[in-house]
């Protein structure tokens, strides 16, 4: 029997299962899991839940468990353990699996249907059926295991970050800032996604070369910032030396706590599409997203203020696909690099010059030197395409780098 271990565990957990039913007679509660193997799944959704609890103290309580004993970030695991009702995995996971399997038990899970009114005319035309219409505003409501992936009530902007540092951690963090020469100085963090962190056997579509960011990073340094490279287990070294650019990822000092502390103190983040940007979201830090393949992810990462995108090129014709073609074919979020290559397509990373121009524009954005209304209006057709395929209305004035948009305007039509 394939799942005999689960059934054995459930046999011994029968008293707890019965107690759950008895408790539910007197007190409503839910059960849910925290996907702990990737920080992108572990960070923002739980922060959203905590903010919703702050906003509505009468929100139904939830019993949580971590779905992996070896969490990708122990510091964050400890933070959530202090703020949530966490039960041991060996107790709750078998019950969770049982309840998920049979609809009879589904009242133990969060049900969003009561608060969702779907517009069938719009919903039926969408390529993906995971979106809802609330009022007159289209919102992609990503829900996974009863946990929302999107801050549809804008509570992250209403409440302060939930992550808190104790005095010992503050002392350790400030000592490290002093050690690397950035204490009381303006600095930003940057990162590139690598196959090393998740032990990927083949290169993935979201990966990018950190050295393509060098020209742009040097520009920011020329404006008085110091730069800190983030990441773990990275083999790819920065191919230049500059005292204002600290390779924290390569110094051997990186740990879960310091990663959080550095990002909490930075001005902003410059990164490819990778999980560490969710840490920036936890601390409400604005982010420039480079080499992105799915701008729809801004629905999940409200801190991302500006994008430039990877392009898809037809090997046979040498022509680039429009972004609408990419979204229509779901190339940007359903297929890996190998599957895309089998379709006779290549994914083209942003060049170092495209990245430099994006970073320059992001600097202007951070210093209020861009006319957002004008830029969004010029990019209106593209954002209508995003809304068409992903249900997300760009009400927060997120923009594509104006220079990148202009140079690739045929792809945005």
- Helix count equals 17
**Overall strand count:** 16
Our estimate of the beta-strand percent is: 5-15%
- Distance between the ends: 54 Å
CATH topology of the largest domain: Rossmann fold
From the alpha carbons, calculate the radius of gyration and give it in angstroms.
23 Å
The CATH architecture of the largest domain would be: 3-Layer(aba) Sandwich
CATH class of the largest domain: Alpha Beta
Low-confidence stretches: 114-141
SSE class: alpha/beta
Mean pLDDT: 85
Overall helicity:
25-40%
Q: Characterize the overall form.
A: globular
CATH-assigned homologous superfamily of the largest domain: Glycogen Phosphorylase B
Note the main sheet: 7 strands, parallel
Number of domains: 2
Strand order in the sheet with the most strands: 10-9-8-11-12-13-16
């Amino acid at each position: 029997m394939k799942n005999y271990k689960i059934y054995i565990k459930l046999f011994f957990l029968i008293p707890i299962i019965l107690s759950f039913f008895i408790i539910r007679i007197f007190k409503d509660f839910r059960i849910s899991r925290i996907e702990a193997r990737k920080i992108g799944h572990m960070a923002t959704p739980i922060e959203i839940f905590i903010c919703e609890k702050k906003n509505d103290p009468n929100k139904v309580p939830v019993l949580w468990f971590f779905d992996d004993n070896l969490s990708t970030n122990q510091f964050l695991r400890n933070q959530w353990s202090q703020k949530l009702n966490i039960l041991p995995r060996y107790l709750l996971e078998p019950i969770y699996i049982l309840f998920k399997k049979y609809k009879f038990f589904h009242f133990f899970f969060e049900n969003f249907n009561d608060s969702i009114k779907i517009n069938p005319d719009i919903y039926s035309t969408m390529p993906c059926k995971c979106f809802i219409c609330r009022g007159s505003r289209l919102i992609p409501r990503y829900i996974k295991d009863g946990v929302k992936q999107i801050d549809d009530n804008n509570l992250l902007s209403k409440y302060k970050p939930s992550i808190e540092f104790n005095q010992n951690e503050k002392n350790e963090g400030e000592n490290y800032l002093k050690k690397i020469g950035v204490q009381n100085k303006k600095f930003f963090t940057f990162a590139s996604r690598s196959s090393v962190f998740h032990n990927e056997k083949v290169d993935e579509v979201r990966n990018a070369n950190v050295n393509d960011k060098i020209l742009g990073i040097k520009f920011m340094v020329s404006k008085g910032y110091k730069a800190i490279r983030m990441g773990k287990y990275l083999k790819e070294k920065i191919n230049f030396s500059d005292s204002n650019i600290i390779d924290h990822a390569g110094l051997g000092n990186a740990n879960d706590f310091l990663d959080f502390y550095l990002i909490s103190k930075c001005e902003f983040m410059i990164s490819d599409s990778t999980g560490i940007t969710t840490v920036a979201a936890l601390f409400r830090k604005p982010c420039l997203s480079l080499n992105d393949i799915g701008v729809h992810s801004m629905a999940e990462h409200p801190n991302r203020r500006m994008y430039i995108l990877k392009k898809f090129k037809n090997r046979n014709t040498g022509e680039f696909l429009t972004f609408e073609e990419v979204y229509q074919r779901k190339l940007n979020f359903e297929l890996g690099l190998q599957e895309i290559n089998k379709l006779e397509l290549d994914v083209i990373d942003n060049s170092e010059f495209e990245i430099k121009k994006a970073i320059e524009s992001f600097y202007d954005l951070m210093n209020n030197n861009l006319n957002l209304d004008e830029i969004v209006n010029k990019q209106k057709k593209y954002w209508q395409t995003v809304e068409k395929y992903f249900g997300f209305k760009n009400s927060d004035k997120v923009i594509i780098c104006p220079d990148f948009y202009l140079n690739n305007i045929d792809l945005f039509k």
